[in-house]
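Entry for the shared binder. Reason: the reviewer on the internal report wants the predicted structure included alongside the sequence.
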Amino acid sequence: MVFSSQIYPFERHPESEMIRRAQNVFETLRLRRSVRHFSSEPIPMEVVRAAVLAAAQAPSGANKQPWTFVVVTDPQKKKTIRKAAEAEEESFYGGRAPKTWLDDLAPLGTDSNKPFLEEAPALIVVFSHGVDPGGKKNYYVRESVGIACGMLLAALQMSGVATLTHTPSPMGFLAEILDRPDHERPYLLIPIGYPATDCRVPQIVRKAEEEVLVIV
């Protein structure tokens, strides 16, 4: 099969502008934290829509775009999701998780109680597609959807929206509650909104540059 092509409309910038933009991105993303205490104040859906569409520009294996982003604002749906998620989390914290995992989580103060699933004005549930609707295999699905989720988190942070990545395991209940087709699998649950006025987050330290960056 021969694919059509087009000239890439890439816009170059002076080096000083490139550095300024890169530093602005770093400074914005440097402040991103996982928020577990949300205000119930609504956020603009146009912002959410734009962020999701930005995420959907992510590269994917063979351009299969194996993702669906479901935005949940209905209070009853959020309540149902919270109840199902907490049931799974109670099993996780109550014995399914190994002690080493629980020890690593302890400084963050997390437990099976997940009020943010109702408090946040919206949830974004990301679904991956191992196959397309016709049953044809997709490629590099986890990698592709992971890249899209990273772009989504960055777009929301840069737009002034706080986020949390939540992965209750297993997450099959999300497909049932949201009535998703059989070829979609829950990948990530992202509560979004404004932080509560008294929102507190754990004090953490990121790895130093020399621990994460290698230039050869």
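Summary line for the report: Residues 36-196 form a domain with the NADH Oxidase fold (CATH 3.40.109.10).
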